Each structure stands twice: as C-alpha cells, then as structure tokens.
Amino acid sequence: MNDQLTVAVLGTGIMGAAMARNLSRAGHTVRAWNRTRAKAEPLTADGVQVVDTPAEAVRGAGVVLTMLHDGPAALAVIRQAGPGLAPGAAWVQSTTAGIEALGELADCAREYGLAFFDAPVLGTREPAEAGQLTVLAAGPAGARGSVQPVFDAIGVRTVWTGEDGAAGSATRLKLVANNWVLTATNAAGEVLALAKGLGVDPQSFFDLIAGGPLDLGYLRAKAALVLEDRLSPPSFALDTAEKDARLIIEAGQRHGVRLDLAAAGAERFRRAAAQGHGAEDMAAAYYASFEEETARDGA
Questions:
Q1: What is the pTM of this model?
Q2: Residue 228 contacts by C-beta under 8 Å, 6 or more apart in sequence?
C-alpha cells in the first residue's frame, strides 16, 4: 500500500491496544511499548512488535502515537523515547492531557524536531476495537498527509479543529465533549440509586421515558452495565474519568467558568474509587451514592 507507515504506539491500555491492533490490521508496521510489558504482549498475535523501551519503539518510526494516562506521563515517555526519535517525524498526541499540559508537550516536540498533532479521540473500548473512533485533530496542514492514514485506521471520522497543535483547539473540544459524557454518566448512576432507594423498578423509569425527548441511548447503555453487573472489563475506567473530570474543572477555572456539576461528578468518581471501583467502568460511580458496606447489595 502506498501509505504504509511505521508507527510507534506508546501506551497500550484500553485505547492504545485497540489502536495498535487496527493500525497493524490496516497494513502498517507497528511497534508498541507499555510500562508493563506483559499487558502489551497479546498484541503480538495481531502482528504488532512489542519492545522494551520507548526509544526502541520510535526508532525509524514516521509517526509516534502516545496514549497514556495524562500529560506528565506523555512528556516523561516521549523524553525516554528521545534517543530514537527521528527529526521530522509526526507526534500524534492522543492522551487526554488537558489544556495546560499542551504547551510543555508542544515545546518538547519542537525540541526534537517533531510535527506536533494535538489529537484526542472520542469513543470507548468498543468503538476503539472496531476502529470507529472520532479523531479530533489540530496540527500543521503540510504534515497532515503523514498522519491521515493513522487516523483512518483508528477512526471513522477526523474532525480538524486548527493548524496549531500547541493552541489545543482539539483538546478544548474534547474537554467540552467529555464534560457532557461524564455528567451524563453520573446522572445515570444517580437515577438508578434513587430508584433503588425509593423502591422503584428501574424498568418503570425506562418505560416512562421510552421514545420521548428524555430518552437517551447512552443512559440505557451505562445503566445496563450497573444493572447487569458488567462493569469489568471497563469501556472507560473510573480512575481515568476522575482524572478527566479534574482536567475539565481546571480548564473551567482558568477561563472564569464555574462547573458545579463537574466538581460534584469528580467527587463521586473519587468516592467510588475509594470503595475499590477505580478499575471498573466509570458507570460504577453509581456506588458513590451508598455507604461502602451496602454498595454491592444489588442495583
């Protein structure tokens, strides 16, 4: 294929592993690194080469994709990769890092002579595995041809938001979208919790709103994870949701916007994590409505 690339994927959690698989299936040469190598090893069955260090992963790669926990993690890993980075390579930075971290990440890209793309994605485990993510991207127009094949392999749609990755237009849009997603997740949990507390069958609520403007497929999907005890493996981990919620709150504060629902949601994620639900799907925020000893006494 004419657009076959060598791509380094740094971070193979829920999203990174799915991206690596889809890149390999699209015919690209993929080298992957993860802090815990054992978690990346299953990718070898999909033709991905798993390596021991970030520097080994990026050596000779035309595109480097980072999908790590947060901005500081992305910065630390790309610096570890430094000895292997090729000037002129493209850095697709898909970690939800927040606005404030982008400046330092972009500075690091300039230091290594990389074309920097702010490229967070919308979607969870299932669309990631199916290669149906939505990629939000900002970066230099002249280098877009080098990364579009990557976006085409991992996503079904690319939304270009600007030409300056350091300005964070893609990340800003991602934070706005995530604020809606996280708020809706917490709302779903509280609806179920109140129904339980009042002795209301949740199905009667779903029947009440069915087909009307209050109905929402996302509400039903997240509620089902709780009601059917399918919180593991997570589509989007609760610990990550708390991190994203705090990035949203910080962004709002720095721009004069008070986000009361986001703050309350972050606290719900924190309480549920303290109860031991951090590695479960973020729908487990439902359990924040109850004392720990009664949290799993039925939904």
A1: 0.94
A2: none
Residues paired with residue 100 on neighbouring β-strands, in sequence order: none
Task: List the alpha helices (DSSP H) in 82-214.
Answer: 99-111, 125-129, 144-154, 169-198, 202-209
Give the CATH number of domain 6-167; options: 3.40.50.11060, 3.40.50.261, 3.90.1210.10, 3.40.50.720.
Answer: 3.40.50.720
Instruction: Report how far residue 75's alpha carbon sits from residue 263's, in angstroms, rounded to the nearest whole number.
Output: 26
Architecture of domain 172-294: Orthogonal Bundle (1.10)
CA pair distance 112, 20, nearest whole angstrom:
23
Q: What is the mean pLDDT of the chain?
A: 96
> Domain spans of the chain?
6-167, 172-294
Q: Is the peptide bond before 202 cis (omega within 30 degrees of 0)?
A: no
pLDDT bin (cut points 50, 70, 90) of residue 104 is very high
Distance, in Å, from the CA atom of 43 to the CA atom of 14, rounded to the nearest integer, reads 12
- What the block records as the tokens of 253 is 């504060």
- ∠ Cα 249 221 123 (to 5°): 55
- pLDDT score of 298 more than 60: no
- 220 close to 185: Cβ distance less than 8 angstroms: no
